[in-house]
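Practice problem: predict the structure.
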Amino acid sequence: MKKKVVLGLSGGVDSAVALIVLQQQGYDVSAVFMRNWDSYVNDDILGNPTLDAEVCSQEQDYQDAKSVADKLEIKLKRIDFIEEYWDFVFKYFLAEYEKGRTPNPDILCNTEIKFKAFLQYALTLDATKIAMGHYARVKLIDGEHVLMRAKDKTKDQTYFLSQLSSEQLSRAIFPVGDLTKEKVREIARKYQLDVAEKKDSTGICFIGERRFNEFLSNYILTKKGPIKTLDGTYLKDHEGLFYYTIGQRKGLGIGGLKDYQQEPWFVVGKDLLTNTLYVAQGFHHHYLYSNSCTVKDVVFRGNRNLENREFTALFRYRQQDNEVKLKWLDETTLLVSYPQKVRAVTPGQAAAFYEGEICVGGGFIDQVYFDNQKRMY
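Answer:
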């Protein structure tokens, strides 16, 4: 009998080609489109239907997924994980912003929705595996399933998958992980798929084309406060701390001030107690740099003994690898040291850890330090 796999068909070119690869490999494939966000948010979830009446790209994505399924002669189911997404992803997203942090919902979407709720659904269909269009690879090494970087390093998505457990990885297939993006598009063209030239999705899925600030203001109470330099000089008022992230340049509206050099301003710190946003001039301002941080809620796969091992870390997607030293502070918290200094390591963002090509785990950045002095991040 063919092994049964349930594929998350998203409406993009990557999952479409993943379907082709699985069919070529002889799997019995079921295709499912996940609906994680209700574009017309209803009374049952929010209690206030007037907050969000915008349409995101989700319906178009479904039509694109259906077009692919029809072309490849496979049925497509559409299932809802709206409440699960709200409870386990969006609530966390809002709570982190209210703390002045900068969360990445894609990480939790993978751990809680795609590789948990979706996996549980797939198991009810007697599937042995689930598949996604992520650029990543899973290999069995010494009896353990390990997460490895994709062949196409420019598209590698292991950062977003870094917090999956070994059990979740044992159930996962990433059919395009050994392909380059250009090869993926070439295959899509060969099969005359309408999504062959479709642009990659960017940004946060539930916000879509809407302005980020306007979207957030529907859910979080904004409060104006002072923008100050590090020496305490008041410059103007900000619109709400949660609109800004460490290292941000755009949207500050403080260019051309008298008595200051004509260099760009950047966000370098936040103080929630006083509702103050701190800024400084220069991309490489010293306050933007740190040399250690703590990372919480760490999922670490394989040997937890960290001695005499060489690790690198990504503190944001598509960043260059940073050499780091790791030390356990407790069961799920790591002290991460990087004496060479790294710019704009930001609380709330994910940190992914690597040992060569293998992604050994990841967690969320909590506190950031320079020479043991906590930054106002």
